Amino acid sequence: MTKPILVLKDIVTLVNKGTSSETRILKDLNLTINDGDFITIVGANGAGKSTLFNVIGGNLPIDAGKLLLHETDITNESEEERTKFLSRVFQDPKLGTAPRMTVAENLLLALNRGAKRRLKPRQLKQHMNEFTKLAATMNNGLENRMDTATGDLSGGQRQALSFLMATLKRPDVILLDEHTAALDPRTSQELLHATNQRINEDNLTALMITHHLEDALKYGNRLVVLDDGQIKADFKGPDKQKLTMEQLYQYFEV
Ligand SMILES: Nc1ncnc2c1ncn2[C@@H]1O[C@H](COP(=O)(O)OP(=O)(O)OP(=O)(O)O)[C@@H](O)[C@H]1O
Question: Domain ABC transporter spans what residues (predicted)?
């Protein structure tokens, strides 16, 4: 049986609180994320997709409703506390990695996350084999650049590294915030393919925002349509498999 990992219950988020321009962005949003779910999220500009990730990540406060992780109320936990169970990959290749550090050092940083330990050369040596194997799963030559400073990588390699760093410690939930949007079409497809493979093989739980409906249909076991701060549709399993581009496109017609 599938177990809920994260539950969003009647979530409300306000901006410009207490002013005449106070606005509700998320409007009693309900979403249950189960163990092993790979959910693609689509919606028009301004629908609330990034706000949803900010609320889950603790970057934005929740004004009403509850956020439960494994049935524990984490509504008021800080962003820092949530990094223990959550990781996020952003659209911008410059975010997520330390540019002056090498690929291997960045992976070690990710492995030591939360441990407050300094990087030791001995530790790097110890993990090099494992890191190189891991980098090879991205199928973009990252394994040949283990000693390269991250700032000198291609955008695709850098995003692949950010993704690996985000998955290394098997967080309960991974948020992919249009993580291939800044890449050329071919590189984007390659990274999506590698992303999908790793999520499926390791049975990770992930949410992925995308503006590419083909990708939203192709990947994941669920597809969620966000509209005006609410979940407009949530296609699962066979329903998602049957869903067509034309049907999905209708949600974007005004
Ligand atoms: N801090 C804020 N102050 C005022 N309005 C905000 C703030 N954050 C978000 N909004 C508004 O909330 C709405 C949802 O924004 P959000 O960025 O979540 O949408 P999105 O679906 O991610 O859009 P996009 O596809 O363009 O990235 C938008 O109308 C946006 O202008």
Answer: 6-253
